[in-house]
Each structure stands twice: as structure tokens, then as C-alpha cells.
Amino acid sequence: MDLHDLLQEISRSAGWIPDWAIAGAAFIVAASLALLVHGAIMRLIRRLTPAGFEYGRTLIDRTHTLTRVGLVIVALAVVLPAVPLGPQATRAGAHMLFVVFIMLLGWSATTALTLATDFYLRRSTIGEGTDPLARKHVTQVRVLRRVVTTLVGVVTVAAALMTFDSVKQYGVSLIASAGAAGIVVGLALRPLLTNLFAGIQIAVTQPIRIGDAVIVENEWGWIEEITGTYVVIKLWDWRRMVVPLSYFLEKPFQNWTRQSTDLIGTVLLWVDYTVPVAPIRQKLEEIARASRLWDGQVVNLQVVDSNERAVQLRALVSARTSPQAWDLRCEVREKLILFLQEEFPGALPKQRAELIDLSEQRRASAAAVVAE
After folding, report:
1. How far apart are CA 221 and CA 214, in angstroms?
2. How far apart are CA 178 and CA 167, in angstroms?
3. Deepest in the core among 199, 298, 307, 317, taking most CB within 10 A?
4. Cα–Cα distance measured from residue 276 to residue 346, given in angstroms and rounded to the nearest whole number
């Protein structure tokens, strides 16, 4: 005697018990057995999982509730055809269980993906942003995780909706039609799809990475976060600029750390023509060697421009990262100005004027007037 026959026999024998009560009792028993089986399976899996397999143990803990609910759904689906319910209620219950099971599968896939990427990212430390390879891997993993998570969510919801005949027919007619509704939906989804594909392209081609120093819309900052639709830039004064992903594929921008984080800082000074360049060049080298921000690669001083009033000196110093290059520029500028003030104050920019004594001209003009 199978389960269906057993429940039917119970229903006939205990005619005073309503069918819904028998169905509820069957569901409770099935769910309880599923919970007991799930507990036993989880204990067995934990015992068989090696102690060093941290990902597997963490995944079991993260999906414990999801697998428990999934096993309960399977048990209810097995019992459902056998309970004394009407055909319409049985079909509705089976459909509901199937939809919930699809959502659980999508949720479990997203959890496993997120956990796997988190474990991978533990091995990639950005630190001060001096390792371009680490920043490349972190950017690729984070962007692709968001893209894949979005796709899994869309596929899960679509699969659940397609189980409803009315929605499935509407979707088929909408895809097959070329009417105004299709055009409106296409236009509405265009920004989402544009940024979605832009995220995939950015993850592959790497025009920007987490921690890159960039100039966007005349604002300087660092790439702080790359989501599935936008990029967050932390500006130098701690403001946040939010830019769509598609911006970095459609418009020009400056990336100071595309190949490496090393940068050359520039300091420009206007000085008088009487300035002695050699002592200033020697002072620049002294300042660079004494600074903890200098990376020991580039230090140079050149006369790069001149006009009718002054000449322009350009000091070049290099640093390991963009923040250090900025601080080093400020330090060099401050100390060079102080050096000029103390050692060569006459070399500071000045306005020249020629004074002409007009008294002799006035006397000559007065004598000429008297003679006439």
C-alpha cells in the first residue's frame, strides 16, 4: 500500500476528521521527517568535510537554512499528490512549491558565488594601492560578481514568472510583437543593459581598477567602489562622485595609475632673472633625499619658461603613490620658497620700473617759452 492509498484509507476510516486536517497532519509529519533527515545529513557532511576545507564548512553554515527549507519543500511535494485535497488545490500547492524551490535555487547560487569570491579576495590585499596586479584581480572579481549576481537574479525571477501561463503568454507576445509596448520596454531597459554590458567590458579590459587615481570632470580622486551600474569616486576632500559605468567607455578621463602607481610630481616657481639656478637645483636634491615620500627615482630642476618679467623653474620629483606625490609636491614647494626667501630674496619675482628725472626737461621747456 502506497502513501496515497494509506491516506485515503485513513480518510474513510475516520470520516469525522475533515480532509484539510488530514492534509495538514500529513504535511506536518513530512516536514518533521525532512527536518530530521536534514539534521542527520548536515552532521554527516560536517564530519566528512576536511578541517582545512574552510570554504566548504562556511558554505554549509551559510546555506544551512536554505537546504533545510529546500528539503522540506521536496517532502511536501512528495506528500502533496497523496493528501485528500481537490485537484485545483493540489495544482495550486504544487505550483507554489515549485516557485519557492526555484527562488531557493537562485538564492543558494548567489550565496555560493558571493562566498567563493569573498574567499578569493582574502588573498588579494590592496594595501596602499601599490600592487597593480592585486587591484586588477580585486576589480575583476567584484565587478563580475555583481554582474553574475544580477544575471542569476534576473534568470531566477524570469524562471519563476514563466511558470505562470498568463505571464508566459504575455512575455511571448511581447517579444514577438514590434508594437509600441516593445519599444517602450526596450527604451526603459536600455540604461540598465548599457551599464550591465559596460560592467562586463570594464572587468575584462580594465580601464579603471579599485584604488586607481583618476581625474573625472576636473575632479581628482580614487576609485573607491565599482558596482554593477555605477562607480563611486572618493575625491581628495572626501566627497563622493557617483558616475555611471558607461561614462568610462564613452568619455575621456585621466587615469594616473593605469600601468603603475608611481607618479612624477611637478612644482612650478616663477623667479627673477637674477636667480642662481645651480644652488636651487642642489637644494631640491637635498630636500628630496631628506623626504620619506621620495622613491629615489626622479629629481630634477629645469628652466622651462620665461617672459618679460620672470623665468619659470620646474622641479620634478617622483613618489610611489598619487597621495604621496601630492604631499611631496607641497613639501618641495614650501621648502624651495623658504630657501629663496632666506638665501636669495632678490631672486623672488619683482616688478621693474625706470625712474626718469623730469626737472631738467621742465627747465628747458620754461627757458624756451621765455625766449619766445
Report:
1. 6
2. 18
3. 317
4. 10
Are 61 and 115 contacting, i.e. CB atoms less than 8 angstroms apart? no
Helix (H) or strand (E) holding 301: strand 294-306
Contact indicator for 53, 11 with CB cutoff of 8 Å: no
Q: Give the per-residue SS3 of 199-240.
A: HHHHHHHCCCCCCCEEEECCEEEEEEEECCCEEEEEECCCCE
271: Cβ contacts below 8 Å, ≥ 6 apart: 310, 311, 312, 313, 340, 347, 348, 349
Rg (CA), the chain: 38
pLDDT, tens digit only, all 372 positions of the chain: 455 555 555 555 545 456 566 677 777 888 888 888 888 888 888 888 887 777 778 888 888 888 888 888 888 888 777 776 777 877 888 888 888 888 888 888 888 888 888 887 776 655 445 566 666 677 778 777 877 888 888 788 878 877 777 655 544 444 444 444 444 445 455 666 676 777 777 777 788 888 888 999 989 888 888 887 789 999 988 899 999 888 888 889 988 877 777 788 899 999 999 899 999 999 999 999 999 999 989 999 999 999 888 999 999 999 988 788 889 999 999 999 999 999 998 888 887 666 666 666 666 676 666 666
CA distance 271 to 275: 7
d(CA 334, CA 330): 6
Cell numbers linked to 359: 626737472
Left (φ > 0), alpha (ψ -120 to 50) or beta: where does 206 sit?
left
What one-character DSSP code corresponds to residue 259? S
HEC profile of 116-149: HHHHHHCCCCCCCCCCHHHHHHHHHHHHHHHHHH
* Domains identified in the chain and CATH numbers: 3-123 (no CATH), 135-152+177-259 (2.30.30.60), 263-347 (3.30.70.100)
Tell me the β-bridge partners of 222: 213, 234
Q: What's the Cα-to-Cα distance from 105 to each of 19, 69, 99, 102, 143, rounded to whole Å?
A: 32, 11, 10, 5, 22
pTM greater than the 0.70 cutoff: no
* CB count in 10 Å sphere of residue 94: 14
Cβ(95)–Cβ(160) under 8 Å? Answer: no
